[in-house]
Amino acid sequence: MAFDKKLLEILACPVTKGKLILDKENSELISTQAKLAYPINDDIPVLLETQARELSHEEVEKWHS
After folding, report:
1. 30 touches 63 (CB < 8 A)
2. Dihedrals φ, ψ of 37, to 5°?
3. Which tops the pLDDT comparison, 30 or 64?
4. Which of 24, 30, 46, 64 lies in the 20 to 30 Å Cα band around 6?
5. Which tens digit of pLDDT belongs to each residue from 8-59?
6. Which of 29, 33, 35 is nearest to 9 (CA)?
């Protein structure tokens, strides 16, 4: 995956307007505040709440630290 790090700096969670964390392993952008993971398809982030999956409590803890 060749996701642009500069793009990550300007993207924000559409729900909370907070920062997103890149999860390269799962090709997702993580919002710990919204407890959502947004998919990245073909290097394009899909920042739609309806397409995001809910994070488990363990996942939120993992990314929050």
Report:
1. yes
2. -120, 120
3. 30
4. 64
5. 899 999 999 999 999 999 999 999 999 999 999 988 999 999 999 999 999 9
6. 29
Distance CA 41, CA 58 (A): 24
Measured distance CA(45)–CA(64) in Å, rounded: 21
Kindly report the number of other CB atoms within 10 A of residue 49's CB atom.
12
CA 8/CA 25 separation, integer angstroms: 16
Q: Which two tokens stand for residue 2?
A: 């060749």
Any idea which residue has 């559409």 for tokens?
A: 14
Report the candidate in 3, 12, 2, 23 with the shortest Cα–Cα distance to residue 49. Answer: 12
